[in-house]
Amino acid sequence: MTDDFEMHLVLPAPPETVWAHLREPELLGRWFGWHHDGFDAELREVFVDAVVVERPGRELVIAGGHRFTVDGHPAGSTLHVSRVSPADGSAWDPSWRPIEEGWVTFLQQLRLVLDLDPAAAAGTRHTVMRSGSPRAGLVTDAGPGSAWSARLFGPEELAGTVWFRTPHQLGLRVHGWGDGLLTIMTDVPGGEGRVVLTTYGRSDDAAAATERDLLRWWAGVTDTVPAS
Question: Which of 32, 30, 144, 15 lies closest to 75 in space, CA to CA?
Fold first, then answer.
């Protein structure tokens, strides 16, 4: 990643819907982050306590560090995320780079939610994350929109679409898991890699079984896997 950070997404929903997903707790809970004991407190910390709304319905700044701007687009909306220069003119702290990669992951989850059928997006979400250092050549090098299939773990052949690709991340939409999203991130300056799996509308038992298989696979394809 260079010293600059910008992200630009075309989203399949009107600006007022995108804005609601940045402000309303129930909608935030459909896409942001991964589940843990402090999830509700984290939502409040990031999207309430740390937010300055600069243009209602259009623009806000989170934690003084990143500006989110929503505009109209023929396909729905555009969401532009850019880094805010430190007010004192100091150099940007490189420890924020893993946080910015986190925004890439999360906002692709937002894009997924807006692309799903509303009933599916409102279904129970299961999201799991594990850190680690994945080995090179782990998964397909196909470009966004391409079909893919693989036996990533176990006997089941998974298939889907390459959802997005960046220098550090690959997102795979997995059709057999209710259009789940599997995101694999390689190491970034100041941080590790990680795997994030999000699915909707599956039973707790089915999601837990997939999670066990995923984490067993991840342990075998990473050099180190912290317990967190």
Answer: 15
**Model confidence over 37-92: pLDDT tens digits?**
889 999 999 999 999 999 999 999 998 889 999 999 999 999 999 988 876 767 76
Residue 112 φ/ψ, nearest 5 degrees: -60, -50
152-172: per-residue pLDDT in tens?
776 778 889 999 999 889 999
- CA-to-CA distance for 84 and 49, rounded, in angstroms? 18
Distances in whole angstroms, Cα of residue 47 to Cα of each of 5, 25, 69, 85, 164: 20, 9, 15, 20, 25
- The answer to whether residues 136 and 195 touch, using CB atoms and an 8 Å cutoff, is no
Per the DSSP assignment, residues forming a β-bridge with 134 are: 222
Domains of the chain: 1-115 (3.30.530.20), 118-228 (3.30.530.20)
